[in-house]
Amino acid sequence: MKGSHSAISSQRRNSGAAGLLFPLLGACLWAAVVGYKPVIIVHGLFDSSGDFKNLQRFINESHPGTNVTVIDLFDRSASLQPMWKQVEGFKAAIYPIMQNAADGVHFICYSQGGLVCRGILSTLSDHNVHSFISLSSPQAGQYGDTDYLRYLFPQFVKSNLYHLCYTSIGQRISICNYWNDPHHRDLYVNSSDYLALLNSERPNPNSTEWKKNFLKIKKLVLIGGPDDGVITPWQSSQFGFYDDNETVVEMQQQDLYLRDVFGLKTLAARGDLIVCSVPGVEHVMWHSNETVFHMCMEKWLV
């Protein structure tokens, strides 16, 4: 009897251990079989990869085992280099990550980085990006007297920056590549080497191909909010922008949406255009705000 009792005890211990072990094994197998797609983060103006530690932590706490890469290029003052140069540099760093991810990757692209990512997605025909999360990025352009502007161009205000930005010299500075002065629309359309081309606001022989490439994404998530303080107007983070009276025209009334020039209307019709607005978040806090992560990002990173 004693022997059989010890056998039962041993069985109980084993089943208890198994009870602990199997859920752990199950979780590991789930991560291995289903897994989370790698996440690639592209920073913004004057940032560096070290600024995204909180966002990396949020991702790894909610989706353990996710491979998160913050691309360490064009940091700090180097982020002022021309946008097409940054697109090519980031593309070269990101492409091997894509090639090693059979099930695809996700993009989180912050501020100016959101426009860099659009350039990559438009020009890379074999990208495998599933969710493109644009985190408070001036997608429709920038036109505002911000601290950034005063720091960069102390002798200018928003109303006269076009004198510099819409020149060949100005177009060598990243912010001028997406400076969108609503009072000098023709100058913007004819001078912008970057945003006006991405938006097909001036004739672009690549526009059909770029649209096809961009529409390979599975979700476009546009995050922004009224207390941003840098992106001006803040609705630019969701493709809204000023008319020539500086009245904001929302995305759905914008020509680039109505004509579906690069696929916004198509994405909306597919149910793949997500707009997430969060009040009370300053521009430099978007990537460190856990509420923003849970509300606007977490579910699109699977």
UniProtKB/TrEMBL annotation:
Give the E.C. number(s): 3.1.2.2
**Would the keyword Glycoprotein be found if you checked this record's keyword annotation?**
yes
Top enzyme class, one word, equals hydrolase
Single GO cellular component term = lysosome
Q: Which Pfam families is this protein grouped with?
A: Palm_thioest
Q: What keywords tag this UniProt record?
A: Glycoprotein, Hydrolase, Lysosome, Signal
- Principal place of residence: other
Catalytic reaction list: S-hexadecanoyl-N-acetylcysteamine + H2O = N-acetylcysteamine + hexadecanoate + H(+)
From the Swiss-Prot or TrEMBL record, what is one GO molecular function term?
thiolester hydrolase activity
Q: Where is this gene product found? A: Lysosome
Q: What is the stated purpose of this protein? A: Catalyzes the cleavage of thioester bonds from S-palmitoyl-CoA or S-palmitoyl-N-acetylcysteamine (unbranched structures) but does not have activity against palmitoylcysteine or palmitoylated proteins, branched structures or bulky head groups. Conversely, hydrolyzes both long and short chain fatty acyl-CoA substrate.
Q: Which family does it belong to?
A: Belongs to the palmitoyl-protein thioesterase family.
Q: Output the PANTHER family linked to this UniProt entry.
A: LYSOSOMAL THIOESTERASE PPT2 PRECURSOR (PTHR11247:SF74), PALMITOYL-PROTEIN THIOESTERASE/DOLICHYLDIPHOSPHATASE 1 (PTHR11247)
Q: What is this protein identified as?
A: palmitoyl-CoA hydrolase
Q: What is the lineage of its organism?
A: Eukaryota, Metazoa, Chordata, Craniata, Vertebrata
